[in-house]
Amino acid sequence: MLELHFLGTGAAFYPELGNTAAFFLHGDTLYLIDCGSFVFHKLYQLSEYKEARHITVLITHMHTDHIGSLGDLIAYSWFKKGIRVKVFYPDERLNVYLKLCGIDREIYEYTAWWPEKLPLGIKARRVYHDPSMGCFGYEIGDGEETIYYSGDSGLVDSEMLDGLRSGKFTHLYLDTANYAPAESGHGNFNALKMVADPSLRGRITCIHLDCDFKEEILEAGFCVAKVVN
């Protein structure tokens, strides 16, 4: 079962809810989706990180609320735990950023594509957010179920909703803003309500919130992510 545990659910300009990031465990690997400025400090305190034997990070894009503490995670994991973090992101400019942060390629593993032979299936999908960088959502499947995590995305992909209807996806985690219009590069709550059937909403979790409107989300039938303490 793919169970996401959230470290934060906020947007960059709503730090009260922390940087949106999530992790899950599969086999002996801890998988982390994004590693924003506040994320490593919180992850560091968890037993799941302390006990992890392998760590893989999926990056959705290179805004600092999504990669701000990635260098900290890589360096600490290597020098203090002897773990070479694997980073998956289909835009190789991430390596330039890490180099400027003093993070050498020798202490982490980078891949721009996910090998099909691995037991966990991960597929990157380009999304609309910031044209200056690669922005991706991820389909993640373990052979029994497949979820979709949008990252920051200004458009609700009808293909994702169709996949939820057909059973291709068991759950969607979607960027949802209350104030920002869709053209801003973030999902819009009112637009989501217009396209998501009520029968689907119990399998859609709203993330990357730009204010605390959780009650409205729940009243509309959508899910709110629980953040680990």
Q: Regions with pLDDT < 50 over 5+ consecutive residues? A: none
Instruction: Report helical residue fraction.
Output: 10-25%
Q: Kindly report the average pLDDT value.
A: 94
Beta-strand residue percentage? 15-25%
The number of helices is: 8
Order of helices and strands: EEEHHEHHEHEEEEHEHEHE
Note the gap between the termini: 21 Å
The gyration radius over C-alpha positions equals 17 Å
Overall body shape: globular
SSE layout and pairings?
Layout lengths: L4 E4 L12 E6 L2 E5 L5 H6 L2 H4 L3 E5 L5 H4 L2 H12 L3 E4 L4 H8 L7 E4 L9 E6 L9 E6 L4 E4 L8 H9 L4 E5 L13 H7 L8 E4 L6 H6 L3 E2 L5
Parallel strand pairs: 3-4, 4-5, 5-6, 9-10, 10-11, 11-12
Antiparallel strand pairs: 1-2, 2-3, 7-8, 8-9
Which key features would you list for this structure?
about 230 residues, alpha/beta, six-stranded mixed sheet, 12 strands, about 25% strand
Brief overview, please?
It is built from eight helices and twelve strands.
Description:
It is built from 8 helices and 12 strands. It has 229 residues and is an alpha/beta fold. The protein has a 6-stranded mixed beta sheet. It is globular. The model has no long low-confidence stretch (mean pLDDT 94).
